Amino acid sequence: MGFDRPIPNGRKSKSMTTELNPLTVAVQMDPMEGIRIGGDSTFHIMLAAQARGHRLYHYLAPDLTYRDGCVLARARPVRVQKVEGDHFAFGEAEVLDLGRDVDVVLMRQDPPFDLSYITATHLLERVQEETLVVNDPASVRNAPEKLFVLDYARFMPPTMITRDLEEVKSFLAQHGEVVVKPLYGNAGNAVFHVGRSGANLSALVELFKSSWVEPFMVQAFIPGVAEGDKRIVLVDGEVAGAVNRIPGAGEIRSNLAVGGSAAKTVLTERELEICEALGPELRRRGLLFVGIDVIGGEWLTEINVTSPTGIVSIDAFNGTDTGGMIWDAIDARLAARAAA
Questions:
Q1: Can you give the pLDDT at residue 249?
Q2: 187, 144 in Cβ contact below 8 A?
Q3: What's the CA gap between 236 and 286, in Å, rounded?
Q4: Three-class SS of residue 161?
Q5: Which residues are part of the catalytic machinery?
């Protein structure tokens, strides 16, 4: 590996962060080997943490154990660097008590938002009194992307959640074109556009009903998606920046993971109104890093709280440091805890 300093190990007592006494941070995420460092938000948050002198540990959600009132994780100290193919180095694995040995846990594994994900939120919730978990695990559990957004229906396109084919047919007849997507999907997977003819609608509903036990989401199609689906990042309720994601040729999906391209953007008055409406509630719930999706400059479609992305493109276009903003917000949260 190309690292010229040893990987730190050893645990530390709880403390506030300073240059001489950095934080110990446990990152619950996907395998380091598989991440794409050019666009991975978690990796860039880790780089920002390391630049501040924080100690980083990496573990996977299945590495969590509850024992004798403690939540443990078999974790490895890790160093990161922005070198493709040589972007991380692990130290020897340790068993960390997440309530006593670390200052911050970042819950950053990708969905699916399934029972495994929900179980991890329940376990991490048990350390919240001692250790700051970002995002707040109870709030993550109670705010799934396509359901939490219903609290802000006034900003949304016409939306239905159902398993009923006749209801979907009626909705299509009312709105002409619709988009059908799984309730707990991610990264643009299994998102379908159904035109006015309704061709294959029955088969599509059958597929959704056989593939998932939960209802699915149906939304009126917004033609403005051709001009982009804007990802807006909020840090502790404040706008950090935005990037416009433009669908590829022949696509309605603009997710970068499925071939969308990123473009510099600014916020419309409507988008600022949406952010101002969401910000206080996100802050109250401890949802410190959130990404919202807005189509056509006015239609809110999702509030992403599990493992939002987009900060690499935002920083590249705007010359900002969203990773640093996230750590500033974490420091402020820790300071408020210490003062309470």
A1: 59
A2: no
A3: 8
A4: strand
A5: 146, 181, 231, 245, 253, 293, 302, 304
* pLDDT level of residue 261 (50, 70, 90 thresholds): confident
Query: Average pLDDT in the 62-81 region?
Result: 98
DSSP characters over 43-107: HHHHHHHHHTT-EEEEE-GGGEEEETTEEEEEEEEEEE-S-TT--EEE---EEEETTTT-SEEEE
Task: Give the model confidence (pLDDT) of 208-218 as tens digits.
Answer: 999 999 999 99
Q: Mapping DSSP to helix (H, G, I), strand (E, B) and coil, where does residue 321 land?
A: coil
Specify the 3-state DSSP secondary structure of 217: strand
What pairing do the DSSP bridges indicate for beta strands 24-28 and 104-107?
parallel
Q: How far apart are CA 15 and CA 138, in angstroms?
A: 24
* Token code pair at residue 25: 């941070």
How many Å apart are CA 165 and CA 178, to the nearest integer?
Answer: 13
Task: Name the pTM for this structure.
Answer: 0.90
Sequence letter at residue 107: M
CA distance 105 to 108: 9
pLDDT in tens, 220-245: 999 888 788 999 999 999 999 999 98
